[in-house]
Amino acid sequence: MTLAKSKAIFDNDDYNHFPEVITEPKSPVSEAEMMQAVRTLLLGLGEDPDREGLRDTPKRVVKALKFLTSGYQQSLDELLNGAVFHENANEMVLIRDIDMFSSCEHHILPIIGRAHVAYIPNGKVIGLSKIARICEMYARRLQVQERLTAQIADALQGLLQPQGVAVVIEATHMCMVMRGVEKPGSWTSTSAVRGIFADSAKTRQEFMSLIRHSPDFH
Ligand SMILES: Nc1nc2c(ncn2[C@@H]2O[C@H](COP(=O)(O)OP(=O)(O)OP(=O)(O)O)[C@@H](O)[C@H]2O)c(=O)[nH]1
Ligand SMILES: [Zn+2]
User: Fold this and answer.
1) For residue 50, what is the DSSP state?
2) Looking at the annotation, which residues are catalytic?
3) Average pLDDT over the chain, rounded to an integer
4) What is the pLDDT of residue 3?
5) Ligand 1 centre and the CA of 106: distance in Å?
6) Is 104 annotated as a binding residue?
7) What is the distance between the alpha carbons of residues 175 and 12, in angstroms, rounded to a whole number?
8) The whole model's pTM is what?
9) ipTM score
10) Which domains can be identified in the chain, with CATH numbers?
């Protein structure tokens, strides 16, 4: 199937109307105000925001935070770019070890980990890279790991109406490592299963056994 032909099918398809909700409104705060707030933070920390090393820090922090939360500005429609194709595949598709960087919404500190995403098609498949892009879009928002996991699963379920979707995220939270309870080496696993992965223990186990042998996780 050519890409052009696939796109034509895609254009007529109902997945275009998958209700992607942008949960965050456009910001009413200017960059100048954000930089001023970072300057205040620096003062609060007892620093001198006018010393050479910190002079451009408010600007850098705002730029970095905007990048780390740039998923708010994206939508599924935009990132898919038409890459959903009709295909009579009905075996499990698994992408494992998708690197992931998110930010916890409680402390705005990094969540670092990997996602494993599987689905069993039901007439439609998605461009493989788009699965990683969907993970990135939701990761680049302020998150809790459970919601991030569920959002990825629900996006694929809504886009493809597959037989089922399974998502596992294994991550370490810097708010639990560098501060607070200070537990380096702790990993949090979350899963979200939909359709046949929820209904069939055998299918779920097949997925779990395929992702299990990753050497980095225990
Ligand atoms: N369920 C869940 N909790 C998270 C996630 N990221 C951070 N948290 C937790 O959010 C909780 C916030 O608890 P609070 O007691 O309000 O904040 P805190 O005083 O900074 O808590 P400590 O981290 O225990 O020092 C902490 O237990 C964090 O570990 C996440 O992705 N999922
Ligand atoms: Zn946190």
Assistant:
1) T
2) 104-107, 145, 173, 175
3) 89
4) 33
5) 6
6) yes
7) 45
8) 0.87
9) 0.90
10) 29-68 (1.10.286.10), 80-210 (3.30.1130.10)
